[in-house]
Amino acid sequence: MTEEEAVQIAEYVAAACPAQKFGEFTPDVWGEILKPYAVDEARSAVIAVARRQPWISPAEIVEEIKARREERIELAHVVYDGNPLETGAQSAASRRALIAAAADGLLPARTPAAALGTADRLALPPGEPGPYTNRIAAARAAVGQATPTAREGVVNPRAISCRVCQALPGVSCDARGRRMRDVHPARLEDARRQAAGLPPLDPDDARAAEDRIRAASAAALAQHDTTEETP
Fold first, then answer.
1. Is the preceding peptide bond at 169 cis, omega within 30 degrees of 0?
2. CA distances from 130 to 88, 135, 173 (A)
3. Are residues 61 and 95 in the same domain?
4. CB 164 within 8 A of CB 176
5. Least enclosed by CB within 10 Å: which of 48, 49, 53, 55?
6. Record's Pfam families (predicted)?
């Protein structure tokens, strides 16, 4: 939240609670307290608190924001399938990103069954034989390392939604009602672009490119058939 937005929140509170007094430095103090939060969340919190009482403190706004974020996380039933190529730190970072997205309202409310997916789950591949030295070594190596982000080149297709089957972040792709072992190529490409700091492909442009490739392949095949038929 910026200083200007903090002034807006103070004015919002003054309008909702006419009897509440404000000093010259009230917006400055409120701005420092509310700095970590979005102005839209603060506005919603002001309205919610004002419905219950005639005075509002910045601490009560923060408490209301946190309560609403916890509620959104609970209703989203966040599930992360994981990526076998991730380290322990990367997997934890991906799950934290999903939880943050749920708190921000970017993940819809859903039942546990919907979060887990209704398609049949594939059998797990054979596990690594004991004593699991590779996984333990990877986990130990990840301890104390900086949390990787997409801009650092972490390609994690399950951290984003799929534009082919509409699978939500943290959920595996499916084809004709069955869970896929791998993700759709388009989802992998979107993850690679995100890791490289590039914007996602426009779906219409992607479909147009696929149509051009199919048309070129069909034309090449037709030309090949015509050449073979020529005596």
1. no
2. 18, 10, 30
3. no
4. no
5. 53
6. Phage_zn_bind_8
- DSSP H helices in 77-159: 88-103, 112-116, 133-142
What is the rounded CA–CA span in Å between residue 64 and residue 203? 38
Is 195 found in the same domain as 214?
no
Count CB neighbours of 219 within 10 A.
10
Domain end residue (candidates: 31, 54, 76): 76
| 154 contact partners, CB below 8 Å, separation of at least 6 | 90, 93, 148, 195
Higher pLDDT, 216 or 132: 216
pLDDT in tens, 1-54: 888 888 888 888 988 888 888 888 888 898 899 999 988 999 999 999 988 888
Q: Which domain holds residue 64?
A: 3-76
Model confidence pTM above 0.85 = no
